[in-house]
Amino acid sequence: MNTYLVVILASLVLSWLLGIVSNYYNKRHMVSRLPDEFRDVYDDRKYSESQEYARANMRFSSIADSISMAITIGFILLGGFNWLDQLVRSWELAPLLSGLAYIGLLSLASWTVSLPFEIYQTFVLESRFQFNNTTPWTFVVDRLKGLILTAILGGGLLAGVLYFFGSAGEWAWMWCWVLAVAFSLGITYVAPTWILPLFNTFSPLEEGELRTALEAYARKSDFELEGIFVMDGSRRTSKGNAFFTGFGKRKRIALFDTLLKEQSVEEITAVLAHEVGHSKRGHIRKQLILATIKTGAVFYLLSLFLDSKGLFDAFGMEHMSVYAGLVFFTLLYTPISMVLGVVGNYLSRKYEFEADAFAAETTNNPGAMISALKKLSANNLSNLTPHPLVVWLEYSHPPVLERVRVLKNR
Q: What is the pTM of this model?
C-alpha cells in the first residue's frame, strides 16, 4: 500500500481517536461536588448544569468528528480528489484559475458538510442552555459575509501562493513565506476598522467610572490604546468576553456588552490588565515570531512534496498539479500540526498564568482577577474539572480552577 496514504489515513484516525478517548476520560473526570472556591458564584443546580453542558458538547463533538472523518476518508478512498480534478480540467481554464476553482470547490464542500453541525450547535445545543441569541437571519448573513470574505481575502492569498509555486522556481517557498506573513500582518492591522465591524457594532465606551478606570490603568502601565469599545456580543450569545485587536498604535480593547452587565469596574480593569500583561511580557511578540518561523517551515516542507508522484498516487490522481499538491500536503501535514498544536497550547497556557500574575501585581488586587475569572466561568458554564489529557490536547487557557488557585497562592 502507498506509504503516503497509510500515513494520512493513520493520522486522520489517530486525530479522531484522540478526540473520542479524551471525551471519554473527560466525562469520567468530572467531580460531582462543587469546588469550594466557586461556591460564591455557583450553586448546586448551576454546577450540575455546567457539567451537563460539558457532556452535551462532548457528545456533539464526538458525533460531528466521527461523521467528518468518515466523509473525508470515504472521499479519499473513492477517488473524489481525482474526480474533481477531472471535472475542473474539463472546463479548460488557465492553470491559476483551475487551482482556485479546485480548492474553492473543496472548501465549499467542506463548508457545506460543516453547516448542519453549526446550525445544530447554534439553534439546538446553545439554545438549550440559554446561550443563543442569534436569529436565523443573523446566522445566514454571518455565513454569507464569511463566504464572501474568504473568497476575496483567502482567494487572493491562494492565488499568490499558486502563482509563486507555478513560476518562481526553487525559491517559490520563500516568496510565499513573505506573502503569507505580509498578508497576516495586514489583516491584523485592518481587522479592527474594516473586517470586525462587518459582523458586530463597536461603540466607544461611554464616559464614566469604568472608562476613567481603564484609561487610568492604561496610562499607569504606559500602554497606548487607540480606543475602548463595547461590542454588541449579546446579538449572538449571552456569554461574556473581552479581547484586543490590532497592533502598534492601533491597539483596541473590545468589551462584550454582556461582560459589562456581569462584572464590576475592578474586575473589568483586571481583565484589561491581563491583556496588557500579554503585551508587556512579550507574549504577542514571541507568538508572532514563532508563527512566522512556522509559516516559513511549512512552505519549505510543501516545496519538497509538491512534485512527489507517490503523494499524488496515494489519491489516485491521473495528473500532477500545484493546487492538488497543496491540498494533499495539508493532509500529510496533519501529524506535525497535531504536535505543534500541543506545543502551542502549552506555551499559551504558560503565557496565561504570566498574564494573570501581571494583572494581580499591577492592579495590586488579585481578588479582582479571581472574581472576574469565576464570574466568567459561571456565566459561560465552564467545565471546572477537565481531564489533564483534554487540557494537554486542546486547552489554550489553563482550567479556571487552576488559575484561581494559583492566584490565591500568590
A: 0.91
